[in-house]
Design brief:
Number of domains: 2
Largest sheet: 5 strands, parallel
Radius of gyration: 18 Å
Number of strands: 11
Bound molecules: calcium ion
Strand content: 15-25%
Strand order of the largest sheet: 2-1-3-4-5
Shape: globular
Order of helices and strands: EHEHEHEHEHEEEEHHHEE
CATH topology of the largest domain: Rossmann fold
CATH architecture of the largest domain: 3-Layer(aba) Sandwich
Distance between the termini: 46 Å
């Protein structure tokens, strides 16, 4: 049974979410604030976290950042929940390393579906079958340890960026539209907006390109999407 840590300060919502996850075969652990969530995670690492952004005391964004920077919790899938008018914070959630986000009010059915999707994606990435590392002049990627080196320097990136990079290097020179990238990287049942892809492409370029303004690896194909150009990866 998968454990899901639910961090939500609104009691009614917390209980409702908890009840629904239990009904869907999960083992929910509900906490009202980020401090308690942090203590709980130190005690045992859950399979996934549903994290409210606005919390009393430590904010959800701060907890997300802390969990991402600690080795034992760096890869725990985090689904961030934001209030309706927090558009900017949505993107911030991704920058801080959340795997997906949902806007309140949300349907419980969709919440569970989205959580299943992030769990599936994280287990895909943790697949035990040995995939050899990707090695080019500029890039070294170990798909199992998540180690990414760019021109010899180790870089850290969120799970979404890692999955995006993995998709590109596994499918060189093929043009992918935003929708195709959403399907491949975020999962088919996502309701993430296609423009989110652009945000993550920019972030990935900032990490891997020598000059992100003049990318040579992750290229824009005007009117079509993006493609990975391995031979230009210097
Ligand atoms: Ca809240």
């Amino acid at each position: 049974m998968k454990t899901v840590l639910i961090v939500e300060d609104e009691r009614d919502l917390r209980e409702l979410v908890c009840h629904h996850f239990r009904k869907e075969g999960f083992k929910p652990i509900a906490v009202p604030d980020a401090e308690t969530a942090y203590a709980e995670v130190q005690h045992r690492v859950p399979d996934a976290i549903v994290l409210d952004l606005m919390l009393p005391g430590m904010q959800g964004t701060e907890l997300c950042r802390i969990l991402r920077s600690a080795e034992r919790t760096a890869k725990v899938p985090i689904l961030m929940v934001t209030a309706k008018d927090e558009e900017i914070d949505k993107l911030l959630g991704f920058e801080l390393g959340a795997d997906d986000y949902m806007t309140k009010p949300f349907s419980l059915r969709e919440l569970v579906a989205r959580l299943r999707a992030v769990l599936r994606r994280s287990s895909d990435t943790h697949s035990p079958t040995q995939i050899p590392p990707y090695v080019s002049e500029a890039l070294f990627i170990n798909f199992h340890s998540y180690e990414v080196r760019v021109r010899g320097e180790e870089v850290s990136m969120s799970l979404i960026e890692f999955r995006l990079l993995k998709h590109f290097v596994s499918h060189p020179e093929i043009v992918y539209s935003r929708d195709q990238l959403l399907d491949a990287v975020w999962g088919r049942d996502t309701s993430v907006m296609p423009r989110t892809v652009d945000v993550h492409i920019q972030k990935l370029r900032a990490l891997v390109e020598e000059d992100p303004k003049n990318p040579r690896m992750i290229l824009t194909v005007r009117g079509a999407g993006y493609k990975f150009q391995p031979n230009s990866a210097r």
